[in-house]
Amino acid sequence: MLALQFPSRLQVSCVLLHTGKFAGLKEIALGVVTSWKKSIRFVDLVLKAAPLVETLTARGNIRPLKNLKIRWTKNFAATRLRTIRIRGFSGESELLQLLFFLLRSSPVLKTLLIDTGRVRGKNRAFLDFKRPEDAVRCNFAREVAQTHLAPNVPSTV
Questions:
Q1: Beta-strand pair 125-126/55-59
Q2: How far apart are CA 61 and CA 134, in angstroms?
């Protein structure tokens, strides 16, 4: 498993573009601490460099953004990606765009898990419904997923 965490804007290295670099990788966990807006596009480049990946987990907890213009790789297919997990989903536009892209380009996808719980620290999720902003954020995230994402999920997932 490869775990990547990016504390600041990501500059995609040419190393990721070499097809053999992550040839045996089966699982990727991604965590972006700052806004996904500047770095969301790197996900398709990582998947392209790791053609055997079956599970992708992304962690985010960023406020929603609007008017994204993300240029995804054309003619890309994640032919072995079977599971996608999104943790700390708050209805972020960039994560929705990533999910739309992955749903279109992952023909064997079987499982899509979206967790609205707040993510804090390394691999520790927590959700405190006593804090009103958490309940509101989770409700907003669920509504976004049901309204925008659910109609685009294939029946096989």
A1: unpaired
A2: 11
Rounded CA separation 80/84 (Å): 11
Q: Which residues contact 36 (CB under 8 A, 6 or more apart)?
A: 60, 62, 92, 94, 95, 98
Phi-psi region of 153 (alpha: psi -120 to 50; beta: other; left: phi over 0): beta
Domain count, the chain: 1
Does the reported pTM lie above 0.85?
A: no
DSSP code per residue over 90-149: ---HHHHHHHHHHHHH-TT--EEEE--SEE-SSS-EE--TTSHHHHHHHHHHHHHIIIII
Query: Does some domain include residue 157?
Result: no
End-to-end CA distance of the chain: 23
- Site of tokens 């790791």: 50
* pLDDT(127) > 60: no
Which domain does 34 fall in, by range? 2-152
Residue at 118 is within a domain: yes
Please say if the pLDDT value at position 35 is more than 80. no
What are the structure tokens assigned to 95, written together?
């994560």
pLDDT digits (tens, 9 = 90+) for 62-90: 444 455 556 667 777 888 889 988 887 88
In a domain, residue 130? The reply is: yes
